[in-house]
Amino acid sequence: MYNFKPLNIKKYPKTHQVVTPDTEYWKKLSVPTLVKEFGAIDYVDFSPIEPHYFAVTCSVRVQIYNPITKLVVKNLSRFQETAYGGTFRQDGRLLVAGDEQGLVKLFDTSSKNVLRLFKGHKAPVHRVNFTSDLLHIASFSDDKTVKLWDVANEKAIHTFAHHQDYVRAGTVNPVSADVIVSGGYDGKINLYDTRSNEVTSTVDHGSPVESLLFLPTGGIFISAGGTEIRVWDAFAGCRLLTKLSQHHKTVTCLRLGSDGKRILSGGLDRHVKIYDVATYQTVHTLNFPNAVLSLGVAPNDQTVVAGMVDGLVSIQNMEVSRQKEKVQKPRRTHVLAGKAKVEVDHQITYETRHSLQKYDRHLRRYEYGSCLKSVMTLNVTSKTPEVTVSIMQELIHRKGLHRALAGRSGKSLCLIISFICRHIGEHRFMRVLIDVGMALLDVYEDKVHELPGKVAQKFVNLSVALRRQVALTYDLLELEGSLDMLIAASDVANKQDDMVHFIKDDNTASTLIQSIMAKESSIVTV
């Protein structure tokens, strides 16, 4: 019996994304669990010790969540006004936060008690950090100052007043407890040495600085402000290493991931970009329903938390891929009636036949009209348009497309024309859909006046879509020609410059030219 070979659906590559190891890795993040808070999420920070609880700072409290259950396990609500920047100490035992009144409060995470209350700022304190020696706290305030506090005696050791505007970003060196970096809304970034109580370096970010971050080695720090991220070498006088401009709105937060091998940046454009620290290239993008104000990444990327401007907290856990254990099927024993087991040389296996798809069954019976109708349903055209295009291409190869398009109802024609208009701009479908559109015009060229008004309007829409694509093609060709001219002119200019330098700098060449000219003149004289 003749076995029909099912249609091989062409696998079109996705144009918007290239599959890389990073793409596959970050796609292991689970579906986001959204938790609603009462205000914008100012800051998210993970505890460095297991089970890696994370603190969410919003409104007048700091809430500590369990990343597995997504429930609040502790609520630090000892604030009279808005709280800011709740940050864990490196041992996870203490948490510090600033507030709207200019106070800095130190909490014991086990008892929720306020252990220290640091007073000295005259404006809200938005960011606070523990130094690497665990004995001091750096605070960054809207009163344009940066203070270093001694945890033991509850006093300010140093005060730096070198900014001209709010100081909303700051960080401490993870290696040296004496190095602090602050960023202000004046666009300036100051590097302080607490041993000399002076500013060792000052650079200009170019925009109000929203976030600062040191790499684990302590020699490079990153600043975010405006739509740019800049990388600076702290050991070389804050020399600018590179600029990253992947966001189209303000970048609000920075975080490290993958044990310091990846940088994550969140912005008001609702995206979180992930960069490779080695190359500073974007390796993946996470999308969120609203503007991202804060980010938190657990050790080993086990959990990624994003806080948004509308009070939503997105929690995603990394799904561990469990390899399915291969279950060995027990060997079949061949027993004859009333006799012992018999070993056989060959075992006959029966090939299981897979059921054909609906469009394959129609193709097998040469029912081209019904085949095209089966792939023009909303479920197929919206989720797997490549199936519809593959069927159209197969009908073209079989020279049955005109027969499939003929004699269709107005509703069916509207579906086909809408599909063409929607996908004709995609280069992976363009060639096939242009042929289908031309065949459609050939079939109904003499019957347009007989079609209902709605169908005729669809044909007008198809014409407009084709004209738009033709105009775009001409614009791209003009752009390509302009670029070719610029490249050619650049090559000519470079060759002329090389020739000028060769003639000017190479004395041997000039001497050789003079000798040749002298020989030619002597030959002419003879």
N-end to C-end Cα span: 97 Å
Q: Characterize the overall form.
A: elongated
Number of helices: 10
**Major sheet characteristics:** 4 strands, antiparallel
- β-strand number: 28
Order of strands across the main sheet: 1-28-27-26
Radius of gyration: 34 Å
In terms of quaternary structure, what is this? single chain
Strand % is 25-35%
Mean pLDDT over the full residue set: 85
Structural class: alpha+beta
Helix content: 25-40%
List segments where confidence is low: pLDDT < 50 over at least 5 consecutive residues: 322-330
What does this structure look like?
This protein is an alpha+beta fold. The chain is built from 10 helices and 28 strands. Strands 1-28-27-26 form a 4-stranded antiparallel sheet, with no helix packed on it. The chain has a 4-stranded antiparallel sheet with strand order 2-3-4-5, with no helix packed on it. Strands 6-7-8-9 form a 4-stranded antiparallel sheet, with no helix packed on it. Strand 20 and strand 21 form a beta hairpin. The model is unreliable at 322-330 (pLDDT under 50).
Topology (SSEs and partners):
Layout: H1 21-26, E1 33-36, E2 41-46, E3 54-58, E4 61-65, E5 72-76, E6 83-88, E7 94-99, E8 104-108, E9 114-118, E10 125-130, E11 136-141, E12 146-150, E13 155-160, E14 167-172, E15 179-184, E16 188-193, E17 198-204, E18 209-214, E19 220-225, E20 228-233, E21 239-244, E22 251-257, E23 262-267, E24 271-276, E25 282-287, E26 292-297, E27 303-308, E28 312-317, H2 358-364, H3 368-374, H4 378-383, H5 385-397, H6 401-405, H7 410-423, H8 427-444, H9 453-505, H10 507-525
Helix pairs in contact: 2-3, 5-8, 7-9
